[in-house]
Input
Amino acid sequence: MRKTYVDHLQPGMVLGKEILNDHGQVLLSRGVTLTPRYIEALKTLGFYAVYIQDGIADDVVPQDIISDGVRSAVTKHLRRLYSIAQNAPAVSPDPRQRSAVANLVGAAMPGIAQLYRDVEAIIDRAASAQVLSGITSLKSHDNYSFEHSVEVTVAAVLLGISMHLLPFELNQLALGCLCHDIGKLAIPREILQKPGPLGDEELALVRQHPATGYEIVRQLTGSSDILARHVVWQHHERQDGLGYPRGLRGTNEFASPGPGRFGQGLILPAAEIASVAEVYASLASDQPYRQALPPAQVAAVLREKAGSHLNREVVRRFLTILPVFPVGTEVVVIAGKLRGHRGVVTAVNPEDVQRPTVRIVLGPEGQEIPPFEVDTREDRDLQLAAMSYVDLPVGRPSLA
Output
């Protein structure tokens, strides 16, 4: 099975993973043969990519930490809350708008209550996971911002668990991550979707969104949610003090995510976790004007940003749960006794996420061989490289 971008789909290809709409309903089931009509519909709906069966370990389906049902429900709830918050008078507070604020809070209350339940659902499912599964959800243009918020939340919660956050801290981290981009409601769509570099005025407007989001979330959430609000406010701050909107700085160490740093000009640790998760989710996801980076390149960029942009200790911890070869990755052995053999990752080992279990399916000449599994932890001489399979034809004799 391989990921294929929609522009590269051809009639006759067979879906390897079902496609859902914004409401969690199945649009196309796994095993459906694509027709010109289906392909055109996928383009019209704005999907970036799908999974296609190619005869290479089609039974190995990339799994997500949260189910498609939970993901669709959270996305729908976020969309509803954003719709209500669109009318928030937070951008230009005015005492005369108190009644409007009260009306907004009343309208948003059921949505906020649902978001609290969504947070619990995400934390509950992440608690049973030990490593990130990679980003496997199939996004559409219209759903990107909501899907992105869910991806950030899942990654941040899993990282927070690995860093032994308290239950309340995890809850606040998740709530803040779900709402981290709500301030973009005040930014015109043409600026958010602009393919080229932003002008100075446009960039200044974009850099207001954390503060705008803080004000919106402050109005909508309870007094005990101060940590979540600061995650929204601080997720674009940097360790070197060159971030925005307030130029806070970090220490490249990790302390309790509680409010002990308020008033000291330092980024809250919960926001530092959110920043790492946000950068990861942005790099590893297909976006309107850029395809997702492969996991190894994502890890390289995170290492490069550690110290100046991202908290070095948080990045170090994150890389212990980020597999370079997630389940479903097609790989080639580049060193060791099986050099030239090809296969598919079937399991990630939590104790060593860079040494997966691989099902070898093709020999060094690309010939089919009886499949067998290799645990690369047991043979340290085996070195792997991920195969690029976006443009490869279905029915090819090898993974190359």
